[in-house]
Amino acid sequence: MKPRLPFSSKWTPIPDELTHQITQVFAETFSNYLKKGRVFVEGRIYLREVLLRVGYVEKGRLGQDCFEVSIEYMQEKDNMVKMIHLGVDCTASLLEQFFKNPEELPPIWKGLQVEGREVFCQYTKENPELEAEANKILGEDNDGLVRGEDEEEELDAKISLLGLSSEDFPEGSHRNPKKKTKS
């Protein structure tokens, strides 16, 4: 699952209890359609973006249909639970549309106005279960509270690999915080 906002890197997963509750709601709401398959839910909370994915997979199929919603938020203003509920409502609409007319789903992020907010939606055919297994095999399985890449740490590692140190940067910069002394 890739965030829509380019600066979204560190994230926290939406708690398992909440994703389990959301999965149950989808299973009940779409029970007529789910006789041939099942739904799954996952989500991430980034610094300024909530990303929710609801997927559908038919029994015996490897391919999956995923419906993703991205909502930009402000920590000091917005209620995270309300943002997640808005995402659930939007993914439910996408899933309903999929079962009725799948040709009209947006294959790339498309902005929509929902309850006075801009919400971005997209439809993908990614298989998150296969991705998770591949990440485990590659040793990229991270199950900490905060996940993702820290661009600053990654840049520091690259600088170190080049054999550079803080002394190689201008004094007073964040990489060389020493203050210039007057002579």
Secondary structure elements and pairings:
Blueprint: E1 11-13, H1 16-29, E2 37-46, E3 49-58, E4 65-72, H2 80-100, E5 110-114, E6 117-124, H3 128-137, H4 151-161
Antiparallel strand pairs: 1-2, 2-3, 3-4, 4-6, 5-6
| Helical content class | 25-40%
Class derived from helix and strand content: alpha+beta
Q: Radius of gyration, rounded?
A: 21 Å
Write the element-wise H/E pattern from the N-terminal end onward.
Answer: EHEEEHEEHH
Tell me the span between the first and last alpha carbons. 54 Å
Number of strands: 6
> In which order are the strands of the major sheet placed?
1-2-3-4-6-5
How many distinct folded domains? Answer: 1
What does the average pLDDT come to? 82
Largest sheet: 6 strands, antiparallel
Strand percentage lies at 15-25%
Low-confidence stretches: none
* Number of helical elements: 4
Q: What general form does the structure show?
A: globular
